Fold these 3 entries.
Entry 1:
Amino acid sequence: DGGITQSPKYLFRKEGQNVTLSCEQNLNHDAMYWYRQDPGQGLRLIYYSQIVNDFQKGDIAEGYSVSREKKESFPLTVTSAQKNPTAFYLCASSKGRLMGLGETQYFGPGTRLLVL
Amino acid sequence: AQKITQTQPGMFVQEKEAVTLDCTYDTSDPSYGLFWYKQPSSGEMIFLIYQGSYDQQNATEGRYSLNFQKARKSANLVISASQLGDSAMYFCAMRVRKTSYDKVIFGPGTSLSVIP
């Protein structure tokens, strides 16, 4: 089955620690995205990538880093510089902006990050 | 600046009744796309329906329809014949095209509870 997987489902971070959230897709999509969701709020874009070896900052990139070495994978690292990392993190993918404005994003099941 | 407003933090509906979830948007771009997503308690975002800014007819997908009023900048979601499984968070989103990327803005969401 094609889809997006995220791991782990729950992640605990200690103060000063970097942690990495995994996102893998087998939909052959060019574009991938990372969103952060806080309770009672919508999604905010952290980073996005439209093609392998290229990525751009979103609205709230400070304290986060990404890589896109393979088309299928777009891991997100939450660094110690992110002072309030507790949130729900969603990864998404889409075919690419050449598909037009109606292009749908497909989302993974999410990772919930908690600070110890 | 682009913005999505959802003024109903929570809604209740009787099973088998219809319900309308409100969404208003703000953009100066002439071309944009409007989406509705469903987020069950599991966390995954599920695409429901799409409306393009130049589409003449309101979009429909099964029990979902989008009441698009361009002059009022509203894109309300109508769910007919509500089912218990419709209980979830619902997010309105807008895609606009920038020079090098497509920006997707999400509203804060509406929590829908279907009562037996």
Note: The two ends of chain A are 35 Å apart (CA to CA).
Entry 2:
Amino acid sequence: DIQMTQSPSSLSASVGDRVTITCRASQGISNYLAWFQQKPGKAPKSLIYAASSLQSGVPSRFSGSGSGTDFTLTINKLQPEDFATYYCQQHNSYPLTFGGGTRVEIK
Amino acid sequence: EVQLVESGGGLVQPGGSLRLSCAASGFRLSDHYMDWVRQAPGKGLEWVGRTRNKRYNYTTEYAASVRGRFTVSRDDSKSSVYLQMNSLKTEDTAVYHCARLLYSSGYYVDYWGRGTLVTVSS
């Protein structure tokens, strides 16, 4: 199975900050990487697919990059509604696997 | 508007069975692959299984942790996807979400349901 390692597991940031979350795959996955946002008690929300493509309706302050084993989710000018937990997921091979999550908290 | 609504969760004893349903609306289910993803209390997301669409003969894939116990099926005429769960274990306790996949150089989730809670306990 492909292991997905996210870092950090949590971070504190202020509104207006730039936040970067990384996701590392235990083997190459090309660009078969998605990012999701989840707020407590809510369904996950799809943010990015194919490592860098924004899902429809997602604000442009979210961006993704990377290929192979190393990927990044960046949130520019953090907004109050962005405080949540973020997960990466690889779609390269079965079983599909998620990272452990990164909780973004208010500083 | 795309909507996915799960139902069928509840309390079940270890070794028991439960069937979850996911009612899809706002799109043609037959065009899409569908996934089930679960989240144990206070834990992260775990992929459970997948059903491909008619074009790919409704074939399925499963996580090792549920293979042989869980079955994903669908009825496109009823716009519904199902998760039959047998031989349930306490570690199957989780919120179960269904999710729609879209193809764009690979299959990616674009919509999620809110989930239904399954509690396995004696």
Note: The interface with chain A takes residues 35, 37, 44-47, 50, 61-64, 97, 102, 104-115 of chain B (CB under 8 Å).
Entry 3:
Amino acid sequence: DIQMTQSPATLSASVGDRVTITCRASQSISTWLAWYQQKPGRAPKLLIYKASSLQSGVPSRFSGSGSGTEFTLTISSLQPDDFATYYCQQYNSFSYTFGQGTRLEIK
Amino acid sequence: QVQLVQSGAEVKKPGASVKVSCKASGYTFTSYHINWVRQATGQGIECLGWMNPNSGDTGYAQKFQGRVIMTGDTSITTAYMELGSLTSEDTAVYYCARSVGGYDYAGAYWGQGTLVTVSS
């Protein structure tokens, strides 16, 4: 299986900050990468698909970039609702895999 | 509107099987893949596999090969995930998710989750 490594594991930030989360694949996945936001007790919510496409209804402060093995999720100006856990997922191979998650907490 | 409604919580004994359903509505069931993932309490997300409701094709994560079966009933627009030989490590919330569409298989719409507890 393709391994997905996210960093950092935990990120402390303030409202209004610009933050970046990184995801690295163990082999090239082209742009078959998604980013999800998850809050406690809720299902994941799709933010970005195909590395940089914004899912309908998701605020434009979220953006994604990258290809091959290196990807980033950027939140341009953190809002109170953005404090949550973020996961990347590759769906290039026959077997999809998630990163271990990044917990975004209030500083 | 797109909705995925999953079956209720299950309690199973070790060695048993569980079958979780995912009732789809608000879109053409055969036009989108269904992914299945799970999440143990306080842990990350793990993919079990995917199913193409149109063809019946499936793809299972290596870890679950031989132990998971994903099927669909197009007449009632429902997907199923059956996991056998359960152990306590299978205790988790199981989710179904509908793909974005076309050749993009990211999970765009999600069910509410089904808690499966394995305990003797």
Note: Chain A touches chain B through 23 residues (CB under 8 Å).
